[in-house]
């Protein structure tokens, strides 16, 4: 059980990060300032530095929290008893819903890099959560015989993370599947970003229908769409 001091620290940390989220919405990540956050929560700057020694530490906390939030939304949307293409569409829709509800946090995670900031390795586990859910769907489909690769290997093309997220080599999972999955993963966030940042205005009349069609096309690309099983 947390001590009283630990509870107080957690409460103040949450207050600081919530103020930082409001600053994010008002001025953007590049202009985020610990001094401005300190003023908003009524603390001296020196006191805030005891919780977050630098702006980058605060940004890292916001990034991890954001990745955890969208990852949790994806995990909650996945129903392992449903058909693979239904699971895929539900998870993609959950990512879109989260992005529309949290546009400034989405921009921090998937938008333009913040000048002078380099995300540390600490952000990787949280950043992988959506990919892990999608990878689990593909793995389950492969084990059920609904996804087939060609057994091919493409040395030097994909990094270790692609193997870690999609699992080790097994029936139906190979580099051909991983490449298609990574393309689909990139397309998911690109489609959400285009909608969120107004880049589909004039090109798409019904955003809901377009997104549903896009995710169905991506499911077919990776090999779990209703059009049938793809092979490598």
TrEMBL record:
<keyword id="KW-0804">Transcription</keyword>
<dbReference type="InterPro" id="IPR050109">
    <property type="entry name" value="HTH-type_TetR-like_transc_reg"/>
</dbReference>
<dbReference type="GO" id="GO:0003700">
    <property type="term" value="F:DNA-binding transcription factor activity"/>
</dbReference>
<dbReference type="InterPro" id="IPR036271">
    <property type="entry name" value="Tet_transcr_reg_TetR-rel_C_sf"/>
</dbReference>
<dbReference type="Pfam" id="PF00440">
    <property type="entry name" value="TetR_N"/>
</dbReference>
<feature type="DNA-binding region" description="H-T-H motif">
    <location>
        <begin position="33"/>
        <end position="52"/>
    </location>
</feature>
<dbReference type="GO" id="GO:0000976">
    <property type="term" value="F:transcription cis-regulatory region binding"/>
</dbReference>
<feature type="domain" description="HTH tetR-type">
    <location>
        <begin position="10"/>
        <end position="70"/>
    </location>
</feature>
<protein>
    <submittedName>
        <fullName>Transcriptional regulator, TetR family</fullName>
    </submittedName>
</protein>
<dbReference type="InterPro" id="IPR009057">
    <property type="entry name" value="Homeodomain-like_sf"/>
</dbReference>
<dbReference type="InterPro" id="IPR001647">
    <property type="entry name" value="HTH_TetR"/>
</dbReference>
<dbReference type="InterPro" id="IPR025996">
    <property type="entry name" value="MT1864/Rv1816-like_C"/>
</dbReference>
<keyword id="KW-0805">Transcription regulation</keyword>
<dbReference type="Pfam" id="PF13305">
    <property type="entry name" value="TetR_C_33"/>
</dbReference>
<keyword id="KW-0238">DNA-binding</keyword>
